[in-house]
Write a structure and sequence with these properties.
This protein has one helix and 52 strands. The chain is an all-beta fold. The strands form 15 sheets. Strands 2, 5, 6, 44, 49 and 51 form a six-stranded antiparallel beta sheet that branches. The longest helix is centred in the middle third of the chain and has 5 residues.
Length: about 575
């Protein structure tokens, strides 16, 4: 019978290892060319602060809301809850219960922003204001004297009707027996129709009328330097309107400016940045506006930062430390300070290591993408392939400055940070309509009341043992797990060929003690320490590069190191 012979088995073995994973995920380079602290794929995983890789947390369902498409965390000294926008309805969630909020009539795209003491919801057909209890359309009350009357020394003005949330108050000024000025000491809010203005006093015939003036309607809005800036206004695609300071009900005609007039591209996003700087995005260009409150709006300097790189999704523009990151057609980019205070530049795409996923974005629906900065990570949810809403979440770890992985199973329409009980948490509005909590206590996802396990995957780099050319024979592999609880499978790929399964049912955690309970139940306490598993891999075909893969569909997979050994084959394997 044939006998396998390898002269190299008498030689000392060679070794290779991944001692930490702080270089992150790189799907662009061939696995065999990656440095020893990178890996070629991380599915549903994150990096630990110490440089290990572990499964992401699971999710728990907090609210089931059909059609939920947008969330916003509202936090003032008097109120704290999550606003939930669903089609043309509005709900609020206080961390435990939900309640309907009447009065919202918006449809389509919208921007939600926090003002000084209340929130605003801007749509293409209305601007709504929310004070923690009531939501109502923002309208400016304009009062005009139609007859000053005669014989007045004192006049009293009464405002009635209109179903306001808060009624307006008006003081009258009298001169030469007539009412000459009506001063709104309280402009009121929440009027659904024009109120009636009545003037009484010791004179006669003084009359006045009231009307409600609509603000400019645009679904792109931001609160910046104590003003509201709005774009996306019908027939004014490159124009930004600016409200009065602390008063989004008043918009002076002169308080507007155009950005990149004549380009033929509409504004797609606004982002408040450091101090007075406002970032303005079009699909293929980026601008920086210095909105000095002491200067006239018409005199604000507008600087074109890039005429090739813009933004494709408004909700991906996120403050990351002192920087702002967003999704462009070129990938994920950021704006950063230069050495000179007045200079800015657009960085090279941060997403080069995950370019294959950027290429898979369904660009027709890229505008649905959303981003958030949470736990030192930039999370970018994007629609891949044929998906019309974000189907996968790309995770960039800013602590290690690398991509950590890509999450699936969490198709979502929005992502929001909350701070209930002074603890920052992540909430997702799922495609199915649930509001999900990114839950540190779970290792599975609960959506629509059903708990589903997700697969954690770690595809390491290609191990060449310091030699790209010479064939090798595998000897041993050693895995080190830390605070792990999953049952995993170990697979391998020789020379980027077929995937082979080496071992299933691999226990990654250590059992410390088993506690007996009634009804034949038991509970196992896991050791919080390290588990090392060493396995012989002799008998495999020879190779030039071997890639190891770990997969788990239950529990938390937490990997710290992987070491391997092999023999260099000085001659080809043959039969004698």
């Amino acid at each position: 019978m044939p006998v396998w012979f390898n002269e190299g088995l008498d030689d000392p073995p060679v070794f290779d290892l991944t001692g930490d994973f702080r270089g992150g995920m790189n799907v662009t380079m061939a696995p065999s060319l990656l440095p020893n602290n990178q890996y070629s794929f991380g599915g549903n995983v994150v990096l630990t602060n110490a440089g290990g890789v572990k499964s992401r947390h699971g999710t728990s369902q907090k609210v089931s809301l059909t059609g939920a498409r947008q969330t916003f965390y509202y936090d003032t000294p008097d109120h704290e809850h999550l606003l939930l926008v669903s089609n043309n309805s509005l709900k609020r969630y206080n961390g435990a219960n939900t309640a309907d909020v009447s009065g919202y009539t918006g449809t389509g795209n919208s921007s939600i922003l926090q003002g000084v003491d209340r929130a605003f919801i801007a749509t293409s057909g209305a601007l709504h204001e929310y004070d923690g209890t009531n939501v109502y359309a923002v309208k400016r009350l304009k009062v005009t004297i139609t007859n000053g009357g005669t014989g007045y020394t004192n006049a009293t003005v009464t405002v009635s009707g209109g179903s306001p949330v808060e009624a307006a108050e008006i003081e009258a000024t009298v001169a030469d027996g007539a009412v000459t000025i009506l001063n709104l000491t309280n402009k009121g809010r929440g009027y659904t129709s024009a109120p009636t203005v009545t003037i009484s006093g010791d004179g006669s015939n003084a009359t006045a009328t009231a009307e409600l003036i609509d603000p400019p309607f645009g679904d792109i809005a931001v609160w910046h330097t104590n003003r509201m800036f709005t774009a996306g206004i019908s027939n004014l695609s490159d124009t930004i309107r600016v409200s009065d300071i602390l008063d989004p009900s008043y918009w002076a005609v002169a308080s507007s400016f155009r950005v990149g007039g004549g380009e033929g591209e509409a504004i797609v996003a606004l982002k408040s940045w450091d101090v007075t700087n406002l970032l303005v995005y079009k699909e293929s260009s980026t601008y920086l506006v210095q909105t000095d409150p002491a200067a006239e709006v018409a005199n604000w300097p507008i600087q074109k930062v890039s005429d090739t790189v813009g933004c494709v999704a408004a909700k991906t523009a996120v403050q990351v430390g002192a920087d702002v990151w967003w999704l462009s057609k070129q990938g994920v980019v950021s704006i950063r300070r230069m050495q000179q205070e007045t200079q800015r530049e657009i960085s090279a795409a941060i997403s080069v290591p995950v370019q294959s996923y950027i290429d898979r974005i369904n660009w027709e629906y890229a505008s649905t993408s959303v981003g958030v900065f949470y736990d030192n990570k930039y999370l970018l949810a994007v629609p891949l392939d044929s998906s019309t809403v974000p189907s996968h979440i790309l995770v960039y770890d800013t602590l290690h400055q690398c991509w950590a992985g890509i999450w699936d199973g969490l198709s979502c329409k929005d992502i929001t940070l909350t701070n209930f009980d002074s603890e920052q948490e992540l909430m997702l509005a799922s495609e199915a309509g649930d509001i999900l909590l990114y839950d540190k206590t779970r290792t599975d996802d609960t959506i629509q009341g059903v708990s589903t396990s997700f697969k954690s995957q770690l595809h390491l780099r290609g191990y060449t043992f310091g030699e790209l050319i010479t064939p090798k024979t595998l000897l041993n592999v050693e895995l080190e797990f830390y605070r792990s609880s999953a049952t995993a499978s170990l697979l391998y790929v020789l020379d980027e060929g077929d995937v082979e399964t080496f071992k299933t049912g691999l226990v990654t955690g250590r059992q410390l003690l088993t506690l007996p309970f009634e009804e034949e139940d038991s509970r196992q306490l896991s050791n919080a320490g390290t588990r090392t598993d060493s396995m012989s891999m002799l008998g495999r075909p020879n190779f030039r590069s071997v890639q190891f893969r770990l997969e788990s569909e239950d529990g938390e997979l937490s990997v710290r190191t992987l070491k391997a050994s092999a023999f260099l084959d000085t001659i080809d394997l043959h039969t004698v």
